Amino acid sequence: MNRRNEILNEMGLAPIWKLRSIQEQPEQKAESIALMDWAQLKEKVSGCTDCKLRPGCTQTVFGVGDEKADWLLVGEAPGAEEDRLGEPFVGQAGKLLDNMLAAIDLGRGSNVYIANVLKCRPPGNRNPEPDEVAKCSPHLLRQIGLIQPKLILAMGRFAAQTLLGTDATIASLRGRLHRYAGVPLIVTYHPAYLLRNLPDKSKAWADLLFAKKTIAG
Ligand code: SF4
Prior knowledge:
CATH architecture: 3-Layer(aba) Sandwich
Low-confidence stretches: 16-22
Number of strands: 6
Order of helices and strands: HHHHEEHHEHEHHEEHH
Oligomer: single chain
Bound molecules: iron/sulfur cluster
CATH superfamily: Uracil-DNA glycosylase-like domain
C-alpha cells in the first residue's frame, strides 16, 4: 500500500476515495458522451442504465436513418411497438410520417434521421420525468453533434417543450423558427396525434413546407 493510501486508510477514507474514482459523476459522463463516435455512442446507449427506465423496457431505441442527414426528426420516447421493434416511429403513426416525408421527396434513411428524446420506453407510456430527460439528453445532444443537421423537427408537445425548455402549447410554438443546440428547430404535431385529429394534418403539412423552405435557405 502506498503512502497516500496508508494515510487515507488511517483516516478511514480509503473506501470512499475508491468509490468516487470508479463512479463517473453526471458532468463527467456528459463530457465523455460528447466525445463519442457513432459506434461508441450506440454501445453506450444499448448498455445504458443511467436512469430508472432501463429495467422496464425491452430494449433501447437509439434512432435510425441517414447519419449525415439535413433533417433530424425528434419525438418523445418509444411507445410499445417501438420498444418491441427497436425503431422509432413505427406502426400507423410511422406510416403516416413516411407518407408525409415522401410527399416532400424525403424518406427515413434518405437525408432524414429519426430519434426520440428518451431512448427507453416509460412504463405505460407515461410522460417522461425531468430526471430521466436530464440523464438521457447527452445522448441526443451527441447524435446532433455527429449528424450536424440543418434543421430539427420537434414532433409533438413533449419533444417541443423539452427541447425548448418551455411549457408553452404546441399551437403557440408552431410557425416560428426556434433553436436547439445551435440548430434551427421547427415544431409540429406528432403523427400519432394526427391520426386522432385528422383536421390538423393540414397544419402539419404547412409545418413541413415551412421546414423545407427553411432548409433551402
Ligand atoms: S432512457 Fe436514456 S438515460 Fe435512461 S436508461 Fe434509457 S438510454 Fe439510459
